[in-house]
């Protein structure tokens, strides 16, 4: 497994997102000790904004300066890290397994147009093997998958910042319990104040 671990928060050790990403990577490495992890801290080493000179150089024009040449090389290195990483594909594979264990057949996968989804050959191969259609939202229309964004907000509000945890490890240990609560006990107004798992049982006909 190839993992690309990226942190971007400027809060350092006080960042919930850094603690969450570290916990996820630690769990993945525990499951696969041979996993290769590439780490980038975009707060400590930020990437520059894409310029017209970089675009021209990427299209084959001679770089205007050594600075542009280096910026282009850095951008290409990051792109290679994204495309080489198995994170998206492995996450999708695990998600498929989780749903299938509960009797849910996956027919379609909807993502945005990020190149980690559209250019990943390993993801395309996984979807092809499972005969899963890949749906892309309309460009620049994040509201199409707004439920995901709302989940992230709820995650931060009810888990990451809901309590004053004794340590990052304690925060990480609380996550599986919160997800269990979210899926099986927490009421959702969009589902008639029922938890998501109750809706799944209805769709599958378990409660009919």
Which SSEs are present, and which pair or pack?
Blueprint: E1 2-7, H1 16-31, E2 36-41, H2 52-58, H3 66-84, H4 87-101, E3 108-111, H5 115-118, H6 121-129, E4 133-136, H7 146-160, H8 168-184, H9 196-204
Parallel strand pairs: 1-2, 3-4
Helix pairs in contact: 1-8, 2-3
Walk me through what this model shows:
With 208 residues, the protein is mostly helical. The chain has helices at residues 16-31, 52-58, 66-84, 87-101, 115-118, 121-129, 146-160, 168-184, 196-204, and strands spanning 2-7, 36-41, 108-111, 133-136. β1 (2-7), α1 and β2 (36-41) form a beta-alpha-beta unit. α1 (16-31) crosses α8. The longest helix is centred in the middle third of the chain and has 19 residues, at 66-84. The chain starts with a strand and ends with a helix. The model has no long low-confidence stretch (mean pLDDT 86).
Quick summary:
This protein has 208 residues and is mainly alpha-helical.
Descriptive key words:
single chain; about 210 residues; mainly alpha; two-stranded parallel sheet; two-stranded parallel ribbon; about 55% helix
């Amino acid at each position: 497994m190839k993992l690309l671990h990226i942190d971007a928060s400027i809060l350092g050790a006080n960042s919930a997102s850094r603690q969450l990403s570290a916990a996820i990577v630690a769990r993945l490495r525990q499951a696969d000790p041979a996993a290769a992890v590439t780490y980038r801290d975009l707060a400590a080493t930020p990437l520059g904004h894409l310029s017209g000179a970089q675009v021209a150089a990427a299209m084959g024009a001679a770089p205007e300066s050594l600075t542009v040449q280096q910026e282009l090389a850095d951008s290409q290195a990051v792109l290679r890290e994204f495309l080489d990483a198995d994170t998206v594909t492995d996450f999708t594979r695990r998600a498929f397994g989780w749903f299938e264990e509960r009797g849910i057949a996956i027919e379609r996968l909807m993502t945005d147009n990020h190149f980690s989804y559209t250019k990943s050959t390993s993801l395309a191969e996984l979807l092809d093997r499972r005969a899963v259609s890949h749906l892309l939202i309309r460009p620049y229309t994040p509201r199409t998958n707004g439920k995901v964004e709302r989940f992230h907000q709820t995650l931060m509000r009810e888990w990451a910042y809901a309590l004053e945890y004794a340590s990052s490890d304690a925060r990480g240990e609380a996550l599986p319990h919160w997800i269990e609560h979210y899926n099986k006990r927490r009421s959702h107004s969009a589902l008639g104040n029922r938890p998501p798992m109750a809706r799944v049982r209805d769709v599958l006909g378990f409660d009919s």
